[in-house]
Structures are given as structure tokens and as C-alpha cells.
Design a protein that fits this description.
Elements (H helix, E strand, L loop, with lengths): L9 E2 L2 H4 L7 E3 L2 H8 L9 H4 L7 H10 L2 H11 L3 H7 L21 H14 L14 E5 L3 H12 L3 E5 L8 H4 L8 H14 L3 E3 L10 H6 L5 E4 L5 E2 L12 E3 H9 L17 E5 L3 H12 L3 E6 L10 H10 L2 E4 L1 E8 L5 E14 L5 E5 L5 E4 L2 E4 L3 E2 L3 H4 L26 E3 L2 H4 L4 H20 L2
Parallel strand pairs: 3-4, 3-6, 4-5, 6-18, 8-16, 9-10, 9-16, 10-11
Antiparallel strand pairs: 1-2, 7-17, 12-13, 13-14, 13-15
Helix pairs in contact: 2-4, 4-5, 5-7, 6-7, 8-17, 12-13, 13-14
Length: about 450
């Protein structure tokens, strides 16, 4: 095979995987990983590193794969990333590290994500993990939320020698890794649980079923519980809706609820009692990764599934790999289409959705072409289930119970990007609680920046 082409990755057959929840992508074996690593030209000015939100030394770990030194490769990755087996699976590499790869100018970029996944999985199989800090600083830090931002911040602080406790509202740690991303993309027991255990091996304590803002407040953590700093990584779990007629009908769900029932509460398994609607014809409104996850889940639960998105395929915000997988599995894409009303029967159950066709006009403030309604294009889709995947915003519980913590008009906590510092002394924040819904790796980058900020703050006290 030419060095201009990446080594293909093995996957489940689309027809088979469309009826199960097992992982779609098998990843590389060592022979495939070595062949792919050889494609890296080890640039002196490696732009891939600047494309990584947590700053992994990518050429260095790839050189170790070439030499067959997989443990050394893992140590390099683990120095920067708390969740490499997760990132290797769900990061949007094509717009980050791989998007900056020099190899990609005249051919395929190096498959950095698949190589990271190989190394992380190899380390898991061989019981290798990052080492805890020998030096203890004798200072306590609280982390709110056991999602990607919280786990990263906690792991980095533990490596620095801090005594860290994570407070998680749900009954299991993992945040969006657990409730948001389906099993077929990110296995829970095999990957998520083990990555969290690796963070705990650094000395991080995790307390579940603690709703900060109800069970305990940020002020109480600082004044009564002996914590000298707090990081808020509580995510963005409040779903958004369109505000169109019929949206409160039976059979309309937020993607957040639908995926939580399926992923965290295991509704897809026959040995669990969690109820979930198994629609016959389902429309998922939205075009991001969450929309793809919801659509591919509905498909696996037996539905004819449609993605309804008001822009064209070029504007779909989801990862190219997720769009490709959804199409292969049989998800129907109704693009340049926008719902205007959800139709119901006399009992309030969904029977369909009125939509209009759209066309793209001039670019808006963000530079994306603005969708406009084509006059007289109204039509009806027959449906029994509608899933709204339109993004999420932070739950205001923490900000409303914390005096002196500034939020913006979207109820996101205001924090400095470079170190996570908020308007309240000793309180830092990052991830979706600050930005609104974004990616796992951006949340991890924010957790990493905040850990550095907290260390600087506590070191100066």
C-alpha cells in the first residue's frame, strides 16, 4: 500500500452491527499500528501537537510504536491525557490533530486517533497505568462532576500531589461518557470504567449521588469541608427544544433523555427494566454527533430512522466517521428540511411532523450560510417518535446557589480560558458548564488548564 494511504481499520459489517450494540470499530492490531506509524514523517515543527487540546507529544509516541515500545508510547500519552482509550474513539481528530498533519496535504493524514486507541487498549490489556505522585502537598481540592473535564482536572491535580475528591450527581462516574455516548461507540465496562479506575489509582476519590447545589453547596465545600479550591466540571445536561407546536406530545424526547435511558440505564438490554420507546418510524432533529448517536440507537432498537437537518450535508457538524457509519447502517438523511409542527392524535400521541424545505442563502455572523424557507414547500412526515438533538445548556443549580459566581446570558459559568478562573476566589470551572455543549477533548483541555490554574493559586497561598 502507498504511504499516501492510511492503513484501513477493521469494522463490524454494517448489516450485522445495525442490529447489535457491540463496538463498531475493532481498531488496529500491533502489525497494523506499526505499519500506520511508519507513515509519520516525525516533523520537526509538529503541527499535530498544536491541534491537540491536551497537547499530547504525538510524534514522540508514534516513534515508540515504530520501535515496538508500546509501554513507552503509553507513558508519553498518559503524561498529557487522562483518558486516552476514550479520546482514541470519540475525538474529532479530522478537525484537530489529523487536520494539521503534513501527510494530509498530499494524501491521507496519519490515523493518530486509531494509534492512540491502540496504545491505550494495549496498556489496559497489560495492566499498565500512570503512576501516583510520591510527593503529597497536604491540600484538598474538590471537583464537581465526574465527566471528562472533572476526571482530567482531578487526575492532573492528583499527579501534582493534591488530595482530590470528585462529587458526582449520578449513581456512577463518567458523565457524558456514560450517559451520552452509546455502547457501540464507547464500551462502558471495557473502556470507560477502566479509564476511571486508572484515575482513581492516582489517589482520586469519587463520591456519587452528591448533587452539588442541593446535597452540599460550593460555599460549604470551601468553608465547612476543608477544601481549598473547587473545580466545577458539571457539564451541560439541560436539553434545548425548538418551541414549535406539539413539542410536548407523547413520543417527543430530548436526545439527552433518550440516550441516558439507553446508555446509563441500559434500556437496550433485555435483562434491565428501564423503559424506552421503541418507535417504528423515528425522526431525529439535528445534525451533530448527539443526533447521530440518537439515530443509530433508534435504528438498533428496530426503527426506520431519519435525520432531519435544516442545512446541507456539507454543514453537518457531526464527525465524518459518524455520518459515514450512520449512512452505512441505513439511517435516512432528510437534509435542508426543518420541522414546523408536531402532529398528534386525540390521545396526544405523535402521528407525524409538518416540515418545510430549506435552501442556503447568504452567510450569517458565524460564516455559515443561513437556511431560508422555500415558499410553498410544506409537507408531512408520518412518524410515531421525535427526538430533539439541538444541543444542551448548563443546569443553573450550581450557579444559582453559589454567591459571587458570574454566569453569562446562556447561564454558562464565566471562566478564563487559560486557567479556568471564575469570578469567585478559589473556584475554577471548565468544559460544557462554561462553553455549553462541546466535545469530550475540549472539556479535557479545559480540565487540564484549570488544574494548572488551581496549582498556581494554591502554590501562592
Amino acid at each position: 500500500m502507498s504511504v499516501l494511504e492510511k492503513i484501513p481499520v477493521r469494522e463490524q459489517d454494517p448489516k450485522i452491527r445495525a442490529a447489535n450494540f457491540e463496538e463498531v470499530c475493532y481498531g488496529y492490531n500491533q502489525e497494523e499500528a506499526t505499519a500506520e506509524a511508519i507513515r509519520c514523517i516525525n516533523c520537526k515543527n509538529a503541527k499535530c501537537i498544536s491541534g491537540c487540546p491536551v497537547g499530547i507529544n504525538i510524534p514522540a509516541f508514534i516513534q515508540e510504536i515504530k520501535k515496538g515500545e508500546i509501554e513507552a508510547a503509553y507513558r508519553i500519552i498518559a503524561d498529557a491525557s487522562a483518558l486516552p482509550a476514550v479520546c482514541g474513539r470519540v475525538c474529532p481528530q479530522e478537525s484537530q490533530c489529523e487536520g494539521k498533519c503534513i501527510r494530509g496535504i498530499k494524501g491521507d493524514a496519519v490515523s493518530i486517533g486509531k494509534l492512540e486507541r491502540f496504545v491505550a487498549d494495549w496498556a489496559m490489556e497489560h495492566g499498565i497505568c500512570a503512576s501516583p505522585s510520591a510527593e503529597k502537598k497536604g491540600k484538598k481540592v474538590a471537583v464537581v462532576g465526574a465527566g471528562p473535564a472533572g476526571l482530567t482536572c482531578a487526575g492532573d491535580l492528583a499527579k501534582m500531589g493534591y488530595d482530590v475528591t470528585i462529587f458526582e450527581a449520578l449513581h456512577q462516574p463518567g458523565g457524558v461518557l456514560l450517559y451520552g455516548i452509546p455502547e457501540f461507540r464507547l464500551p462502558k465496562d471495557k473502556i470507560v470504567k477502566k479509564e476511571i479506575e486508572n484515575v482513581q489509582k492516582l489517589g482520586v476519590k469519587i463520591e456519587c449521588n452528591v448533587v452539588v447545589g442541593r446535597s452540599v453547596t460550593i460555599d460549604q465545600l470551601l468553608s465547612e469541608e476543608g477544601f481549598e479550591a473547587v473545580f466545577i466540571g458539571s457539564g451541560a445536561g439541560l436539553p434545548k427544544f425548538m418551541g414549535i407546536p406539539g413539542e410536548s406530545a407523547n413520543g417527543v424526547f430530548s436526545a439527552n433523555e433518550y440516550l441516558t435511558r439507553n446508555n446509563l440505564m441500559k434500556a437496550f438490554r433485555d435483562d434491565y427494566d428501564t423503559p424506552i420507546v421503541r418507535g417504528k418510524k423515528v425522526a431525529v432533529v439535528g445534525g451533530g454527533n448527539v443526533a447521530m448517536d440518537a439515530a443509530r440507537t433508534a435504528l438498533r432498537l428496530g426503527a426506520e430512522t431519519h435525520i432531519v437537518y435544516r442545512r446541507s450535508e456539507a454543514e453537518l457538524p457531526a464527525r465524518l466517521e459518524e455520518i459515514h457509519h450512520a449512512k452505512e447502517e441505513g439511517v435516512v438523511f432528510d437534509l435542508l428540511t426543518n420541522p414546523t409542527e408536531i402532529l398528534t392524535d386525540e390521545k396526544g400521541n405523535v402521528t407525524g411532523m409538518t416540515c418545510v424545505r430549506m435552501e442556503l442563502g447568504e452567510p450569517d455572523a458565524s460564516g455559515r450560510r443561513r437556511p431560508q424557507v422555500i415558499p410553498g414547500s410544506e409537507f408531512t412526515m408520518e412518524l410515531d417518535t421525535v427526538i430533539m438533538a439541538l444541543g444542551t445548556s448548563p443546569n443553573p443549580l450550581i450557579s444559582s446557589t453559589t454567591e459571587g459566581l458570574d454566569v453569562n446570558k446562556w447561564k454558562c459559568i464565566v471562566a478564563r480560558e487559560e486557567n479556568g478562573e471564575t469570578s469567585k476566589e478559589g473556584v475554577y470551572a471548565g468544559g460544557d458548564a462554561v462553553t455549553g455543549a462541546a466535545t469530550v477533548i475540549l472539556a479535557m483541555g479545559a480540565g487540564k488548564a484549570a488544574a494548572k490554574g488551581i496549582d498556581e493559586y494554591l502554590s501562592s497561598k
